[in-house]
Amino acid sequence: MPQTAPPFAELLANCQRSAVHLEMRDFYDDPDEAPRVAAWKAGHRPDPNDRASWWRPWLDMVAEVVSRGVVMRRARIVSEPVSEYTRYLYDGTFTNVAAGEQIRWLPRRNASDIALPGNDYWCFDDQLVRFGYFSGEGAYLGDEVDDRPEVVKLCASAFEAVWDRAIPHDRYKI
Protein backbone atom coordinates (compact mmCIF):
# COMPACT_ATOMS: atom_id res chain seq x y z
CA MET A 1 0.00 0.00 0.00
CA PRO A 2 1.17 3.56 -0.58
CA GLN A 3 2.91 5.10 2.40
CA THR A 4 4.63 8.35 3.27
CA ALA A 5 8.00 8.49 1.59
CA PRO A 6 11.24 8.65 3.55
CA PRO A 7 13.59 11.50 2.60
CA PHE A 8 14.66 11.28 -1.03
CA ALA A 9 18.37 11.26 -0.13
CA GLU A 10 17.74 8.17 2.02
CA LEU A 11 16.02 6.38 -0.86
CA LEU A 12 18.92 7.18 -3.17
CA ALA A 13 21.52 6.22 -0.54
CA ASN A 14 19.90 2.78 -0.20
CA CYS A 15 19.77 2.26 -3.96
CA GLN A 16 22.09 -0.50 -5.20
CA ARG A 17 21.60 -0.87 -8.98
CA SER A 18 19.27 1.61 -10.65
CA ALA A 19 17.27 4.76 -10.07
CA VAL A 20 14.98 5.84 -12.89
CA HIS A 21 12.83 8.95 -13.03
CA LEU A 22 9.92 9.69 -15.33
CA GLU A 23 8.85 13.34 -15.66
CA MET A 24 5.63 14.06 -17.49
CA ARG A 25 4.84 17.72 -16.73
CA ASP A 26 5.71 20.76 -18.80
CA PHE A 27 6.15 22.96 -15.73
CA TYR A 28 7.15 22.54 -12.09
CA ASP A 29 6.71 25.41 -9.65
CA ASP A 30 9.48 24.72 -7.17
CA PRO A 31 10.18 27.71 -4.86
CA ASP A 32 13.77 26.49 -4.33
CA GLU A 33 14.30 26.55 -8.08
CA ALA A 34 12.68 29.94 -8.65
CA PRO A 35 15.94 31.96 -8.35
CA ARG A 36 17.62 29.73 -10.98
CA VAL A 37 14.63 30.05 -13.31
CA ALA A 38 14.60 33.84 -12.86
CA ALA A 39 18.33 34.02 -13.59
CA TRP A 40 17.82 31.87 -16.70
CA LYS A 41 15.00 34.17 -17.88
CA ALA A 42 17.41 37.09 -17.44
CA GLY A 43 19.90 35.37 -19.76
CA HIS A 44 22.15 33.45 -17.36
CA ARG A 45 23.22 30.00 -18.53
CA PRO A 46 25.29 27.46 -16.57
CA ASP A 47 28.96 27.75 -17.46
CA PRO A 48 30.33 24.36 -18.56
CA ASN A 49 33.73 25.35 -17.13
CA ASP A 50 32.42 26.43 -13.70
CA ARG A 51 31.22 23.20 -12.11
CA ALA A 52 31.20 24.81 -8.67
CA SER A 53 28.30 27.03 -9.76
CA TRP A 54 26.06 24.15 -10.84
CA TRP A 55 22.99 22.92 -8.97
CA ARG A 56 24.05 21.76 -5.56
CA PRO A 57 23.63 19.50 -3.64
CA TRP A 58 21.74 17.52 -6.29
CA LEU A 59 24.64 17.04 -8.71
CA ASP A 60 26.99 16.00 -5.90
CA MET A 61 24.47 13.36 -4.86
CA VAL A 62 24.16 12.13 -8.46
CA ALA A 63 27.94 11.86 -8.83
CA GLU A 64 28.22 9.95 -5.54
CA VAL A 65 25.44 7.50 -6.44
CA VAL A 66 26.83 6.88 -9.93
CA SER A 67 30.33 6.37 -8.48
CA ARG A 68 28.87 3.45 -6.47
CA GLY A 69 27.77 1.82 -9.73
CA VAL A 70 24.11 2.82 -9.62
CA VAL A 71 22.74 3.65 -13.06
CA MET A 72 20.65 6.84 -12.95
CA ARG A 73 18.32 7.50 -15.86
CA ARG A 74 15.74 10.25 -16.35
CA ALA A 75 13.17 10.43 -19.14
CA ARG A 76 11.15 13.54 -19.82
CA ILE A 77 7.91 13.45 -21.80
CA VAL A 78 7.48 16.93 -23.23
CA SER A 79 4.94 18.83 -25.27
CA GLU A 80 6.19 20.42 -28.47
CA PRO A 81 6.76 23.18 -29.08
CA VAL A 82 8.31 23.04 -25.63
CA SER A 83 7.29 25.28 -22.75
CA GLU A 84 9.55 28.03 -21.47
CA TYR A 85 10.23 25.89 -18.40
CA THR A 86 11.26 22.94 -20.56
CA ARG A 87 13.72 25.25 -22.35
CA TYR A 88 15.15 26.15 -18.95
CA LEU A 89 15.52 22.45 -18.08
CA TYR A 90 17.06 21.69 -21.44
CA ASP A 91 19.68 24.43 -21.10
CA GLY A 92 20.86 23.05 -17.77
CA THR A 93 20.62 19.32 -18.49
CA PHE A 94 24.27 19.07 -19.56
CA THR A 95 25.15 19.49 -15.86
CA ASN A 96 23.08 16.41 -14.93
CA VAL A 97 24.77 14.46 -17.72
CA ALA A 98 28.21 15.61 -16.58
CA ALA A 99 27.39 14.36 -13.07
CA GLY A 100 26.55 10.92 -14.50
CA GLU A 101 22.80 10.97 -15.05
CA GLN A 102 21.57 9.66 -18.40
CA ILE A 103 18.73 11.78 -19.78
CA ARG A 104 16.37 11.33 -22.71
CA TRP A 105 13.47 13.34 -24.10
CA LEU A 106 10.26 11.99 -25.63
CA PRO A 107 7.91 14.29 -27.52
CA ARG A 108 4.45 13.75 -26.01
CA ARG A 109 2.93 12.96 -29.40
CA ASN A 110 5.19 9.87 -29.52
CA ALA A 111 3.93 8.58 -26.15
CA SER A 112 0.23 8.21 -26.95
CA ASP A 113 0.31 4.41 -27.13
CA ILE A 114 2.35 3.89 -23.93
CA ALA A 115 0.49 2.95 -20.75
CA LEU A 116 1.73 5.51 -18.21
CA PRO A 117 1.07 5.96 -14.48
CA GLY A 118 -0.82 9.15 -13.65
CA ASN A 119 2.04 10.81 -11.78
CA ASP A 120 5.76 11.43 -12.07
CA TYR A 121 7.85 8.89 -10.21
CA TRP A 122 11.21 7.49 -9.28
CA CYS A 123 11.71 3.73 -9.31
CA PHE A 124 14.56 2.35 -7.19
CA ASP A 125 16.14 -1.02 -7.99
CA ASP A 126 12.83 -2.20 -9.53
CA GLN A 127 11.64 -2.66 -5.94
CA LEU A 128 10.13 0.62 -4.81
CA VAL A 129 8.35 3.53 -6.50
CA ARG A 130 8.21 7.07 -5.17
CA PHE A 131 5.33 9.01 -6.71
CA GLY A 132 5.47 12.81 -6.68
CA TYR A 133 2.22 14.76 -6.60
CA PHE A 134 1.79 18.23 -8.08
CA SER A 135 -1.03 20.75 -8.38
CA GLY A 136 -2.38 21.83 -11.74
CA GLU A 137 -0.11 24.88 -11.46
CA GLY A 138 2.95 22.68 -10.84
CA ALA A 139 3.31 23.17 -7.07
CA TYR A 140 4.73 20.16 -5.24
CA LEU A 141 2.08 18.59 -3.00
CA GLY A 142 3.95 15.64 -1.54
CA ASP A 143 4.91 12.10 -2.31
CA GLU A 144 4.31 8.49 -1.39
CA VAL A 145 6.21 5.25 -1.84
CA ASP A 146 4.69 2.02 -3.05
CA ASP A 147 6.32 -1.41 -3.14
CA ARG A 148 3.40 -3.45 -4.43
CA PRO A 149 4.84 -5.67 -7.18
CA GLU A 150 2.13 -4.79 -9.70
CA VAL A 151 2.74 -1.05 -9.21
CA VAL A 152 6.50 -1.42 -9.45
CA LYS A 153 6.11 -3.56 -12.58
CA LEU A 154 3.81 -0.97 -14.22
CA CYS A 155 6.24 1.86 -13.50
CA ALA A 156 9.33 -0.09 -14.54
CA SER A 157 7.76 -1.20 -17.81
CA ALA A 158 6.38 2.28 -18.55
CA PHE A 159 9.81 3.79 -17.98
CA GLU A 160 11.50 1.27 -20.27
CA ALA A 161 8.92 1.87 -23.01
CA VAL A 162 9.53 5.61 -22.80
CA TRP A 163 13.31 5.16 -22.58
CA ASP A 164 13.43 2.94 -25.66
CA ARG A 165 11.56 5.52 -27.71
CA ALA A 166 13.09 8.68 -26.25
CA ILE A 167 15.91 10.74 -27.75
CA PRO A 168 19.23 11.04 -25.86
CA HIS A 169 19.88 14.55 -24.61
CA ASP A 170 22.84 15.14 -26.92
CA ARG A 171 20.63 14.41 -29.95
CA TYR A 172 17.38 16.09 -28.87
CA LYS A 173 16.97 19.59 -30.25
CA ILE A 174 14.34 22.07 -29.12
Automatic annotation (TrEMBL):
Pfam families: DUF6879
InterPro entries membership: DUF6879 (IPR049244)
Domain DUF6879: 8-173
Superkingdom of the organism of origin: Bacteria
Name listed for the protein in its UniProt record: DUF6879 domain-containing protein
Organism in which the protein naturally occurs: Streptomyces mordarskii
Lineage, top ranks: Bacteria, Bacillati, Actinomycetota, Actinomycetes, Kitasatosporales
